[in-house]
Amino acid sequence: MMTRITARPLLLLIAASLLLASSSFAAEAQSGTAKSSCVDCHASFPAPTGVTEEQWAADIHGQKGLTCSSCHGGDPKDPSPEGAMSKKAGFRGKPKRNEIPAMCAKCHADGAYMRQYNPSLRTDQLAQYQTSVHGKRLAKADTKVAVCIDCHSVHGIRPAKDPRSTVNPLNVANTCARCHADAAYMKEYKIKTDQFAGYSASAHHDAMTVRGDLSAPTCTTCHGNHGAAPPGVASVENVCSTCHVFQAQLFDTSPHKAAFAAMGAGSCITCHSNHRITHPTDQLIGTSNEAVCTNCHAAGDPGFAAAARIHDDLGKLDDALKSSEQVLDQAERSGMEVSQARLEEAQGRDSLIKARVTIHSFQPGKVEQDTQAGMKIAEKTHQAGLQALAERDYRRKGLGLSLITIVAVLIGLRMYIRQIESRNQSGGT
């Protein structure tokens, strides 16, 4: 009787332990962290075949519950190499490079399958890739071209929004440069390899990395990502106009539109280049050695005269605004109230910015309309600054006269008091 009483709690304890262990294993399996014979071996391998549990846990596929067998087949639960890599378990090992896009597409091109993980993720990547230069060359058995893993990595794939991702906007240019900046690798394709160096010195790169503007252009913005292809000369303007809308609209009405089309020249890149797009200045237009206008126009032709006129108008407005700002600064340092003039001066700066955009119409009359509007504001704010300085001087003169008067009164009082004291002393004696 005593034996039966003590055995029951022991049996219940064992059963409870087994149930907890089973539940724990099921939870691990569901979260993708179940014990894997693949990781047991590959954790000790060097890259790229070496994969630790920590690395796989950081991969987006691992986080979503996928396992090694999802891509490589086999049975990761089998502790023996023969069982884990059994052909019967569907083991296919390392896929060939030309098989990788189709292998990734088994999931990523399946809308119903991807919807359960990320309904907003596009599922036309393979179709896009097949239209790209990379995809077309891969179809012709060129296995040097980029496939999915070259851009997204292999076992450390992170979402694009992750700053550590190889396809995060901040990292895209570096990812592309691994091939496109390698002269030896690109030699057989006869493609320049200075794109990354040019982009690194560009206004776009500065906006992206210095100002932290993730909407600034990077390689994929202009060339596409999965459907990557260089935009043709005729389509460059369309690519640039996705961001620079007003400039494109003005250019379409300009005399350069037809002229560039007749020459077969790219509109935007003729003046601004492509990858090495520097910060534009007023020196870019005009007749100096720095101006791009002189690449096509020479002294005596209408375009040369128009460029000189536009440059002069911009310079006059810029100088007027600087002069106004200098006067307002002086008045402000003197303690004068010039806040209203400051607001109006900002409107003058807006006129200058507008004029610099209107340049793309290449019509001096339109540019002059904007600069004249700014000149009126600059003259007004300059006068406001001068008036503030005049008011300051008037106040200083008034204060000076007041101080002199006060000092004179004090001196007079002092002299009068001494005179009274002197009389009192004389009478006392």
Describe this structure in words.
62% of the residues lie in helices and 0% in strands. It has 429 residues and is mostly helical. It has a domain at 302-428: Butyryl-CoA Dehydrogenase, subunit A, domain 3, CATH 1.20.140. α21 (302-333) runs antiparallel to α22, α21 packs parallel to α23 (364-428) and α22 (339-358) packs antiparallel against α23 (364-428). The longest helix has 65 residues, at 364-428. The termini are far apart. Mean pLDDT is 88; it is low at 1-7 and 10-33.
Kindly list the characteristics that best describe this protein.
single chain; 23 helices; disordered N terminus; elongated; Butyryl-CoA Dehydrogenase, subunit A, domain 3; mainly alpha
Chart the SSEs and their pairings:
Layout: H1 2-31, H2 37-42, H3 53-58, H4 60-63, H5 68-72, H6 81-84, H7 100-108, H8 111-115, H9 125-131, H10 133-139, H11 148-152, H12 172-180, H13 183-186, H14 195-200, H15 203-209, H16 219-223, H17 236-240, H18 245-252, H19 255-263, H20 267-272, H21 302-333, H22 339-358, H23 364-428
Give the strand tally: 0
CATH architecture of the domain at 302-428: Up-down Bundle
Q: What value does the Rg take, in angstroms?
A: 38 Å
CATH topology of the domain at 302-428: Butyryl-CoA Dehydrogenase, subunit A, domain 3
* SSE-based structural type: mainly alpha
Based on CA inertia axes, which overall geometry fits? elongated
Task: List segments where confidence is low: pLDDT < 50 over at least 5 consecutive residues.
Answer: 1-7, 10-33
**Helix-strand string:** HHHHHHHHHHHHHHHHHHHHHHH
What percent of residues adopt helix (DSSP H or I)? 55-70%
| Head-to-tail CA distance between termini | 138 Å
Give the rounded overall mean pLDDT.
88
Biggest β-sheet: count, sense, barrel? none
Task: Provide a count of the helices.
Answer: 23
Strand content: under 5%
